[in-house]
Specification:
The chain has about 240 residues and is of the alpha/beta class. It contains 8 helices and 10 strands.
């Protein structure tokens, strides 16, 4: 299997930018083939949540799956106090792009591991954006220490539906526990993302990347979690 280099250029204290390229630098070409279609503009993915939910690992699985399919990828990550439940987000562009930063209203897929973080990220979405969010909440320390209450779920759902016509709400934490371990939550979310209409990577490539990037002894649980998330969205698509 061909090895790939990952160039890490720090951009500020808490922001890293990763540009995935193979050893022959093949992604200098201005067009990349994605599922037999040539994308002149990239497919933009914004992933957000809190520390400890496996957001960075999810991004790596997607990025390497894209590379193995012959696509260019750029990725950035921003995180605060990740070990204390701080905000974590990553931005990925699959296709022809020099910058990893996604402008407001330009996200194709918003994958939120925590409901409130979905609301915070909602300006990135538009009416055609696929929004997938985990309904299990984690109380941010800045809210638990203040007088501001955590928003009602109905308000969160209304806000997201006002942004997009393609909103999928799933209890990924419950599904992960059912699959065998709560830490497989990120693979539930990844499975859900893979099933979205228009997702540019083949399911087989994602599964292959999971086998490469996840511990072997965790694969049975993570594979089940992935399939459960995939089936949830696939069964709910119109």
């Amino acid at each position: 299997m061909q090895k790939f280099n990952c160039k890490n250029k720090l951009n500020g204290r808490h922001c890293g930018k990763f540009e995935f390229k193979d050893d022959k630098n093949k992604f200098k070409d201005s067009k990349y083939k994605i599922n037999s279609f040539t994308y002149k503009t990239p497919y933009n993915i914004y992933i957000c949540g809190v520390g400890g939910q496996g957001i960075i690992k999810t991004s790596i699985v997607i990025g390497e799956a894209a590379i193995s399919g012959g696509n260019g990828v750029v990725m950035s990550e921003i995180h605060g106090m990740a070990q204390r439940g701080g905000v974590v987000s990553t931005e990925l562009k699959i296709g022809d792009s020099k910058s990893s930063i996604i402008e407001e209203g330009k996200t194709d897929l918003l994958l939120a591991f925590e409901p409130l973080e979905a609301v915070r990220a909602s300006p990135k979405a538009n009416k055609n954006t696929a929004i997938i969010f985990n309904t299990s909440s984690i109380m941010p320390f800045n809210i638990s220490a203040s007088e501001n209450p955590y928003p009602d779920f109905s308000d969160i759902l209304d806000t997201l539906k006002s942004r997009s016509d393609n909103v999928f709400a799933l209890d990924a934490e419950k599904m992960a526990k059912k699959a065998g371990h709560v830490l497989s939550l990120n693979m539930v979310m990844l499975g859900a993302a893979t099933a979205v209409s228009g997702f540019p990577l083949k399911k087989e490539k994602i599964l292959e990347s999971m086998r490469i990037n996840l511990p072997e002894n965790s694969l049975p649980i993570n594979m089940k979690a992935f399939e459960d998330g995939f089936n949830f969205v696939e069964s709910g698509r119109e």
